[in-house]
Design a protein that fits this description.
534 residues; 13 strands; seven-stranded mixed sheet; rod-shaped; single chain; alpha+beta; 15% strand
Length: 534
C-alpha cells in the first residue's frame, strides 16, 4: 500500500496538464499577436481622433472669426461645447476594409469662400503638424467640399461613407485597402500595412455645422511593431523557454527519474534477489501516482519472489532429504539381497523384502503428496464456489465412522445452512487431513464445531489424543516436518491443507492443546443457527 500522507497526481492528469500548457503557449502567442494587432489599429484611430478634435477646434475658431456666429448650416444634432464629447475608437483588425479608392466628385456648388480662406490660413499649421504626425489632414466646408490645399481641392467628398456620416453630425471611421509596392526595412519609418484608417469629424459652432475635418493614417505594420518591441519579445521568449525547461524538469522528476530508478531497482533485484530494492535505493516521494504504485508493486513482487525463492530452496532441500532416506535404505537392502540373498534365511529375506516394500510405499505416498501440493499451489478460486458446511461435516463423519469404527466423530451445535465460499473437495480434503492426524496420533474421539460471525465462518476440530509434542507448535506447518516418520509420515499433510485454503482467503491455524485446529474462510451465505448432534 502507498502512504496516504503524500499527495500524488495521476499520470493522466499530469500529462493532460503538461499538454495543455504546451498547447497554450503557441495559442496564447497567436492570441497576443491578434490583440497587439488590434491595439495597433485602435492606437492609430485614437491618435487620429485626438488630432481631429484639436484640428476641429482650430478650424471652428477660424471659421467663426471669419464668417461670424451665424456662419454655417443649421443642424438638428449639434455637438455643443458644453457636453463631454468622449469618442472611443471603433475599429479593430476584424473590421471590414473598404475599397482603396477615395471618391473625389464634382461639387454642385463651388467651395465656400470663408472655408477656403480659413483653410489657407491654417495651411502652415497643417503642414507643420503632418511632418510629425505623418497623418493626412483635409478640411471640408459644411457641404463636404474639399477646401484645404492639395490634390482634389474644390471637389466634393460627400459621397464617401465617412464624410457622409460626418455631414449628418456623427463621428465616423473606416479602413480602406492600401497598395504596398515593396517592403521596407524593419527600422524604417515607412509603414508597410496594407490598409489605412480614415476618420471624419463634424465641426460645430453651437447648433450650426460649419465644416468637416478628415484625417487618415496608416497604422504600424505588425512585423515592424514587433521589431520595435524586440527586447520585450526576447524577454517573453526567454520566459517561455524557461517555462518549457521547467516543465521538462518537472516531467523528469515526476516520471523519467522514478522510472529510471525503478529500472535500476529491477536490475538490482535481478543481480541480487536476496536483497529488496527499498533497502538499496531510497524511496522518492515526489512522483506521480501510477509510477509510485508501479514501484510499490515491483517491491511487493520482489518480496514475494524472495520468499518464493527461499521456500523453493527449503522445499528442494526437504524433498532431497525425504527421498534420500528411503532410497538409501532400498539401495542398502538391495545390495544385501544381491550379495547374500542365497545364504539368507527365509525370515531375513522376508524382512528385507518387507523393508523395501515399506520404503517404496513411503516414496509413493511422498510423490502423491508432492503432486497434490503442486496442484494446490496452482489452484485458483472462483466466487461461484461454495459449500454447505453442516451437510459436509455430517457426511464426512458418517463415512469416517464406517471406515474407522474405533474413532467417534461428533458434531457440536452449529448454524444450519451456513455456506463457506470454498470448493467442496478442498474443504473435504482439509477436514479429512485433520481427522487422519487425530487417528494416527491415537485419539478415540473427535469433536467438530461450526460458527459464523460477520463475513467469515469457522470449523474447529479437536480430539482427545496426546496432543503435540512440546516445542513443535511452530513447526507443524513446515513442509516435511513430522513426528511420525517411523510410521510413514511425510510431513506434508498440514502444509498441503494450508496451501489448499490460500486461494479462497482461508486459513488453517493451531489453536491450542491438546490438538485443536481451526479452519476459517469467507462465507457465501448465512441462515439462522440450528443445534444438531451426530
Amino acid at each position: 500500500m502507498l502512504p496516504k500522507t503524500i499527495r500524488q497526481p495521476s499520470l493522466k492528469a499530469f500529462l493532460l496538464i503538461v499538454n495543455l500548457i504546451i498547447l497554450a503557449i503557441p495559442i496564447s502567442g497567436l492570441y497576443l499577436f491578434r490583440i497587439y494587432q488590434n491595439e495597433l489599429v485602435r492606437q492609430t484611430e485614437t491618435e487620429l481622433i485626438a488630432q481631429a478634435a484639436l484640428m476641429s477646434a482650430i478650424f471652428n475658431r477660424e471659421l467663426t472669426t471669419l464668417g461670424g456666429p451665424d456662419y454655417g448650416q443649421p443642424h438638428w444634432a449639434p455637438m455643443t461645447s458644453t457636453s463631454l464629447r468622449l469618442i472611443p475608437p471603433r475599429l479593430d483588425r476584424s473590421s471590414p476594409i473598404k475599397d482603396a479608392t477615395v471618391n473625389y466628385s464634382a461639387a454642385t456648388r463651388g467651395p465656400d469662400p470663408v472655408a477656403m480662406t480659413a483653410a489657407a490660413n491654417l495651411a502652415p499649421v497643417i503642414k507643420e503638424a503632418t511632418m510629425t504626425t505623418l497623418s493626412t489632414i483635409e478640411l471640408l466646408d459644411f457641404r463636404g467640399v474639399l477646401v484645404s490645399q492639395g490634390r482634389g481641392r474644390g471637389l466634393s467628398l460627400a459621397r464617401n461613407e465617412e464624410v457622409a456620416q460626418a455631414l449628418e453630425g456623427r463621428y465616423y471611421s473606416l479602413m480602406r485597402h492600401r497598395a504596398v509596392a515593396h517592403s521596407t526595412s524593419l527600422a524604417s519609418a515607412s509603414r508597410d500595412t496594407p490598409y489605412r484608417i480614415f476618420v471624419a469629424m463634424p465641426v460645430f459652432n453651437e447648433r450650426r455645422l460649419v465644416g468637416v475635418v478628415c484625417l487618415s493614417r496608416t497604422p504600424r505594420e505588425l512585423t515592424k511593431a514587433l521589431y520595435q518591441e524586440r527586447f520585450n519579445l526576447l524577454l517573453a521568449g526567454a520566459l517561455i523557454l524557461t517555462l518549457m525547461i521547467f516543465m521538462s524538469l518537472i516531467s523528469s522528476v515526476l516520471i523519467v527519474g522514478p522510472v529510471k530508478r525503478l529500472a535500476g531497482e529491477a536490475a538490482l533485484v535481478a543481480d541480487d534477489p536476496d536483497l529488496l530494492p527499498d533497502k538499496k535505493v531510497k524511496e522518492q516521494p515526489l512522483t506521480v501516482r501510477e509510477v509510485a504504485e508501479l514501484r510499490a508493486n515491483v517491491l511487493a513482487m520482489a518480496e514475494r519472489l524472495r520468499r518464493r525463492s527461499d521456500y523453493l530452496k527449503a522445499f528442494a532441500g526437504g524433498v532431497s532429504h525425504e527421498f534420500k532416506t528411503p532410497l538409501s535404505a532400498i539401495k542398502g537392502a538391495m545390495e544385501l539381497l544381491g550379495e547374500h540373498g542365497r545364504d539368507m534365511t527365509q525370515e531375513d529375506f522376508a524382512r528385507f523384502s518387507s523393508n523395501i516394500s515399506g520404503d517404496l510405499e513411503r516414496l509413493e505416498r511422498l510423490v502423491g503428496r508432492l503432486l497434490a501440493l503442486a496442484k494446490a499451489e496452482a489452484k485458483s478460486s472462483t466466487r461461484a464456489e461454495k459449500t454447505e458446511v453442516i451437510s459436509l461435516i455430517d457426511s464426512l463423519a458418517q463415512r469416517y465412522s464406517d471406515l474407522h469404527p474405533q474413532l467417534t466423530v461428533t458434531r457440536l451445535s452449529g448454524p444450519a445452512g451456513l455456506e463457506m465460499a470454498m470448493a467442496r473437495d478442498v474443504l473435504e480434503t482439509v477436514i479429512l487431513n485433520l481427522f487422519d492426524n487425530s487417528r494416527e496420533s491415537g485419539a478415540a474421539a473427535i469433536s467438530v464445531s461450526v460458527a459464523g460471525e460477520g463475513d467469515f465462518g469457522s470449523i474447529t476440530v479437536s480430539d482427545d489424543g496426546p496432543g503435540l509434542a512440546a516445542g513443535t507448535e511452530e513447526k507443524i506447518f513446515t513442509p516435511f516436518f513430522t513426528t511420525r516418520q517411523h510410521r510413514g509420515g511425510t510431513g506434508l499433510g498440514l502444509s498441503l491443507a494450508r496451501t489448499l485454503l490460500n486461494p479462497y482467503l482461508g486459513r488453517l491455524d493451531y489453536v491450542g492443546p491438546p490438538a485443536v485446529f481451526r479452519i476459517t474462510g469467507p462465507l457465501a451465505k448465512y441462515r439462522e443457527p440450528q443445534p444438531g448432534n451426530l
